[in-house]
Amino acid sequence: MPRKSPFLTIGEVAARTGLAVSAIRYYADEGLITALRSEGGNRRFTRSEIRKVSFIAISQRLGFSLAEIRGQLDRLPGDRPPTKADWARISTGFRDAIDERMAQLERLRDRLDGCIGCGCLSLDTCAIYNGDDKAAALGPGANWVEKRESDLGRPVRPQPAG
Amino acid sequence: MPRKSPFLTIGEVAARTGLAVSAIRYYADEGLITALRSEGGNRRFTRSEIRKVSFIAISQRLGFSLAEIRGQLDRLPGDRPPTKADWARISTGFRDAIDERMAQLERLRDRLDGCIGCGCLSLDTCAIYNGDDKAAALGPGANWVEKRESDLGRPVRPQPAG
DNA sequence: ATACTTTCTCAAGTCAACTTGAGATCAAGG
DNA sequence: CCTTGATCTCAAGTTGACTTGAGAAAGTAT
After folding, report:
1. What is the pLDDT of residues B75-125, one digit of tens each?
2. Could you give the CA distance from residue A78 to residue A85 in angstroms, rounded to a whole number?
């Protein structure tokens, strides 16, 4: 084990963050975090990189993709270690994102209440599916409120399971 | 185009739900929905299958995986078309799931407020990451509140961008 | 110097949820 | 019957976020 250096090995970063070594390597290769190199060529990380890894892990928990996370990390200074203020700014963005997601769910739930009443669950009329964030362009009205369920015609045979 | 039958072609199901034909086929192959067959071997769907497809699409919007959705769909009767009550029961499950997700986010947000204050974002101490739903087993305290950032030692060279 | 662990580089595999493509067949209007 | 468009099967490709494996080199304790 490496003794005493301001730099951390990939294994240490992995241990500190609880992630797999391969994940850390992946983030470094993707440029999400910065890896320096030892004389022998092994990756070495500054402590501030750990914070970035933490940021990545937490953001993923909130449902952000690595692409989105990259966008946030790009807002950090590239020439100096990020300060508390730098991180706080991004944390605030987090809070906003959470609030937004919650508001979305709340709208969804309200609409759902109506849906439980009507029991429709039809894509074209369902308020959940056709929220304000995405409107599917659909054909003429589908009638999920029982129109005529008789009129059997063509014979059928069950699908061979598989 | 098929004229007048209580059964729908895969293309009609796709058009009604706004999904791709390949997606419908995939769901049928996976057994999430039931496909009957025409004499010639083409898939034929009852109207209630559309509702299932809608259910799948909506559930995915709420962040459920197909595996979870399958679990819900399995609760529907296999021998008869689902009634309004059957669907309402599942819709209620929806509502509960949304409420749960919202509660999770709310806890997250409250914890985040503390984090913005401390500016930590450290995986082992961060309240967001170490929520009540998952506790990472980590080593002895990582000190992200600046311990000693001096003591440079081993030389390093930047990683070849790639 | 030896032994042992860690890390390295690639390449390839995994999983979910589908999509795409090839070549053949079905269905329906004229 | 013929033509056109919809479907069929089966295999393989796609994307995101990694993991796994092989074989070699680095790093550290003794």
Report:
1. 999 888 888 888 888 888 878 877 887 887 777 777 666 665 555 555 555
2. 15
Question: What's the whole-model pTM score?
Answer: 0.67
Which CATH class for the A1-82 domain?
mainly alpha
Which of B's residues 91-150 have CB atoms within 7 A of nucleic strand D?
A: none
**Dihedral of alpha carbons A151, A154, A158, A162, sign:** negative
pLDDT in tens, B41-55: 999 999 999 989 988
Q: What residue ranges do the domains of chain B occupy?
A: 1-82, 95-162
The DSSP bridge partners found for residue A157 are: B37
Tokens of B110: 């409250």
Binary contact (A123, B53; C-beta < 8 A): yes
Whether the per-residue pLDDT at B137 is higher than 80: the answer is: no
Within the 98-117 window of chain A, which residues sit less than 8 Å (CB to CB) from chain B?
A: 98-99, 101-102, 105-106, 108-109, 112-113, 115-116
The C-alpha atoms of residue B69 and residue B145 are separated, in whole angstroms, by 44
Largest distance between two CA atoms of chain A:
81
Closest-CA distance, B35 to chain A, in angstroms, reads: 6
Q: Residue B22 CA to D12 C1' — how many Å? A: 15
